[in-house]
Amino acid sequence: MNNPNLLEYERDAEQRGYSMIAGVDEAGRGPLAGPVVASAVILPSGVSIPGLTDSKQLTAAQRDGFYALINETALAVSWAVVEPDVIDKINILQASLLAMLTAVKRLGKEPGMILVDGNQKTAWTGPQMTIVKGDAKSLSIAAASVIAKVTRDRIMESHAVTYPQYGFDSHKGYGSKSHRDAIKTHGPCPIHRMTFRGVKEHVESAAIASGGQINLIGA
What we know:
By secondary structure, the protein is of the alpha/beta class. 42% of the residues lie in helices and 14% in strands.
């Protein structure tokens, strides 16, 4: 059985007259490369998904298993991607909120309320509640966290084929030592976040060295 506390927010919303409660979460705010991905998931009322929790607490194999189970069980599942060039233009917080809003709009069903991980509301005009560390407190948000994380990991694995020198399949774009070393050696590529510390220094150095002309690997 689920930890009953993981359905506390959903049950509270239902008792207040809301139905079709959607959990919303994102993955990829911190990496130096790749998109931020958000997901929205509507689970059946009172559903049991034993073991499902915050995606960061699960192994990759467990996430893959829950990814399939969530897609089979949920009433609606959606996800949305905001690419690095947009992140650089509007900043990562706004990009995350945009991805979450887009995911909600793509559900195909109108949620009665959305439960959003974190402390920042989206631009969704319907009822919503923010829940700090919601991916460990709400089953719906936990489900969304798994969908977002697995989707993003698979995107980064595909980028690893295009840009093998960076090892995106292992670190998924996060700032590991091997990733930072690869940026130092090869410079940034088109999926790097050029405004992020750990990348922008190398963009600036390359621009100075080339007289203002920046040549990105693979561009």
